[in-house]
Specification:
760 residues; 29% helix; 26 strands; disordered N terminus; 4-stranded antiparallel sheet
Amino acid sequence: MLKQNWLKKLIKPLLILMVLILGGSVVSVFANSQVTTGSPVQPATEDIAWDYEADVVVVGAGASGLPAALKAMEDGSSVILVEANFDVGGHVAVSEGQFHSGGGTMDQEKWNIEDSADLYYYDHTRGSSINSRYNDAAYVRSIANAMNEAYSFIMDNGVKTLDVEPMVRSYYRDGGNDGDSVGRMTYVDASDWENTYTGTEAAGIGISRPLEQSLREKGAQFLLNYHMDKIYRDGMFEGQVTGIQASYSPTILPGEEEPLPSQMSEGNIEETKETVNVKANKAVIICTGGSTGNVEFRTMMDPRLGEHLDGLAGMPFSDQDASGEYAAMEVGGALGALGNYTSVVGANITAPRRFGVQYGYGRGWTEDSVIWPLVRANGIVPDFDSLVIVNMVGERIGNEDQYALGQQDVNREEFFDQALTGTFIDPDGDGNAEAYGGPLWAIMDQAAAERNGWDMDAEGVLDYEEGYAFKADTLEELAEKLVNKYHEDIKMDPETLVDTITRYNEFVKNGKDEDWGREDTLVNTIEEGPFYALWATPSMHDTQAGIRVNENMQVVDIYGEPIPNLFAAGEASGGMRVHGLGRVMTSGYVAGRAAASVDEAGLATADTALNPDFAGAETNDRTKTNKAEYFSQRGLSLDTMTHSEKEAEIESWLNDADAKGEEESAEEESDTANNVFEGQSDNGFGGRLKLQITVEDGQMTAIEVIEHAETTGIGDEALKQLSEKALETQSADHDVVSGASVSSRAFMEALKQAMENAGL
């Protein structure tokens, strides 16, 4: 302790002196982040002209900011939410609306799922799981203790969940990467709300809207269109945090003059000053949503994550610009659990679901979106049987089978590791080759478009104008026309591209990929012009690390000391890698509770222990270490499934693993009969949906959905109902199943195609 205090006395004056000498030039370090507009030198508190004030200032009105504000208000504090966007919701508003909540929640209890805070803590501190390996144990303990309570709190404030059994994902002891041993995934019921942001049925709106409505009814104030640039702290690197500075950041669509308005307005602060200062009498809570959108910040964690990874989840509605991280660092804040940032498996880096556009993550957008002019085009759901992935010079970059795998599949990591560094170019021919990791392009032909029913020239499909898609009559012309965004000086070599596709076509005809070992998607040649090059560069999803906090979500400095009156939650906080909204919302709840409890020194006094009212089983036999060998390498399915389905699968494996393996082998060896016809739709809730029908004597005798990514327990149940109706009526025209309208329409579209192929 004496050594640490000595270092602090030495280093802090030096830091302050450095800032004073460099003055405004110090902000050049952060120039690309767009988060700092002037010198970070702190004015004296008494010299700041405050425009607004509240007990608690919450920066960011998303999945962590909304519950943080609600909890702070419930505990007696006044609240102002400062949001950079034109409306409330952040990343959650355009998300799938997937909770990830455990510890014995009301939904788990409804389905007789045994869980506890201890089991949740155990699962998310296991070194054997990549999703838990680098987690901060104190952070996880705090989340585990509060999650059940926070879940009930969210429901009390208007959020509803679908009456579906909680799901479990690709558990690491089955060969996946997820840490959850029991069903914890539930889904939001958004039937009361329209998602005007995406123009789709993205269910996250069923979280943000009711929480926003509850806040407005309770008297919260909203300062929209203001981007937080600076945190005020007495003494800069010591003393209490007193408030923030924010700059006007309206969203004005191309060709328009007026900013976009928010849907709800009660409690809005009408303001357009260039900058405002907002005083926090108790606390500032950073809920800015993370850092994946800031190239300078993310490449500090992983240098491979360059500017070409520009298809960020949530964009162009919700950015993650590291503004919270930078502002906290400027007043002494540390970063935490940074090891979580570099993994390319799971919810950090992923293949885009739609090619030929910038924003290819997730299910996408429609022209009904209020920000469609920013989206521009929605792309195509890739048919990996009909394409190859090439780098900037036209060479294949890996095994496309791996790129086509599901987001949670650990086997796709090999492709990412190759693709993110695998292109070597010697631009000057002097032997100083340089390594690049993108962009990547999907090369396909007109036969692929016709096979999939794509209209490649239709408005709003491919983004030719902004350089995310190219089309040409020959491969040579395609290579010459293609411009590599972010690396325009590097040209694709026509001869290289032609050689790549020629060699690949030979592999298809011979049935063997001699370069990369591709098997599953080695199906169609690429020979029929015109040819297409579509942006297929990986997307970044969740932020997996951020500001270091303690168990009260209070920001700590590089010495581990809490910064008075400053808190962080959600993806802006570092400490726990897990996909889903449970951790984000729970951390917001904890931060709101802590912020309302600060003492005169600005330190949280809230109790982080498990509330006895929400305690589950004292212990759980699944947490015993002697279970590790029992569960290891059992090789069960990595598919998301209900808790009871997973339990049944485990039971089946225990009783007759050999029979299960023989059954799978028999299925793989079976040939498709001549009276079986396929159809597909790319418009399912989760993307592509494929089915096949069996026809005998002019009648459908069987319908089997062979590929889909619809929600387990919702979409797949709808598909079963529709299959039964279609066989009964011998028709593809039916009413949609309630709660699964998107899945229903995709099923009927695919069925019509299959029936047409069969001549019915």
